Amino acid sequence: MNDPDQRVRGTGIERLKSAGLQVDVGTSAHAAKQLNEFYVTHRSTGRPFVSLKFAMSLDGKIATRTGESRWITGEQARNHGHQLRHMNDAILVGVNTVIKDDPQLTTRIEGDRDARQPLRVVLDSHLRTPRTARVLGERTLIATTSAGDLDCAEVLTLPPGPDGRVPIEALLDQLGQRGILSLLVEGGAQTHAAFLAAGLVNKVYAYIAPKLIGGSEAPSPVGGVGIGNLNDALRLRDTEVVTLGDDILFSGYVDVHRDR
User: Fold this and answer.
1) Are strands 140-144 and 236-244 parallel, antiparallel or unpaired?
2) What is the DSSP string of 28-56?
3) Cα–Cα dist 187/191, whole Å
């Protein structure tokens, strides 16, 4: 495949040809694109490749009706989640997750003190992040529509979208301009719904535990209004299933070219 970077597109191929080498373009193109998906997406769109990650019970709950969510999955699944953090340039959660769970959003890999720490991004339209939140620090970006500041964190104020919230497209543009090639979205349910509704998710990682939580008030991974017809459901392609201890990881790419 051709390098999607406009500055060098095709020049490497021409140099090889001028040196007398035979060049075949397109061989294993699909595999090559997946291998370099962060780079290809960033160079093609100016935005990071977006992965959406969540852990849920077998009946599709990410917490109990009282909000307890630690821990739905086992240690192997959680360790794999930290590997995903290590792989990505940035990690994003909504402010409700910060207020409810007070996460650190750091990479913690056993035996690896040099694990890469991604940029931590909080989607916080009305600047409600507590000043005592553990997520605050030098490598933290608070995306908001409100004027203000927070100690030890950068506040990025963007013009509100039609719904009065941070426009996700504009945020992704900003991250892309900062050289962020990949973004891992870790919740919560409303944030997941916003990214999916906007068609901005490239890949989904779903960790599924063999547990039944039940309860109509127990939250699921994707909030929002939801669809009315199954034909409108988002589908995943190139899916993969991996066993992690007693849990399974289901992953796949969002099929943006689906027929409705």
Assistant:
1) unpaired
2) THHHHHHHTHHHHHHHHHSS-EEEEEEEE
3) 6
Other C-beta atoms closer than 10 Å to the C-beta of 31 total: 10
Q: What is the average pLDDT score of the chain? A: 87
Instruction: Work out the number of other CB atoms within 10 angstroms of the CB of residue 154.
Output: 14
Give the span between the Cα atoms of 52 and 186, in whole angstroms: 6
Give the pair of three-digit tokens for residue 41: 């997406």
Task: Spell out the residues 6+ positions from residue 45 whose beta carbon is closer than 8 angstroms to its own.
Answer: 176
Instruction: Characterize the bridge pairing of strands 154-157 and 182-185.
Output: unpaired
pTM of the model: 0.86
Within 10 A of 85 (CB to CB), how many other CB atoms are there? Answer: 22
| pLDDT bucket at 97, cuts 50 / 70 / 90 | very high
Q: What is the pLDDT of residues 231-257, one digit of tens each?
A: 888 999 999 999 999 999 999 999 865
| Those residues with Cβ within 8 angstroms of residue 97's Cβ, 6 or more apart along the chain or in another chain | 103, 186, 187, 188, 191
Residue 65, token pair as written in the block:
């009706």
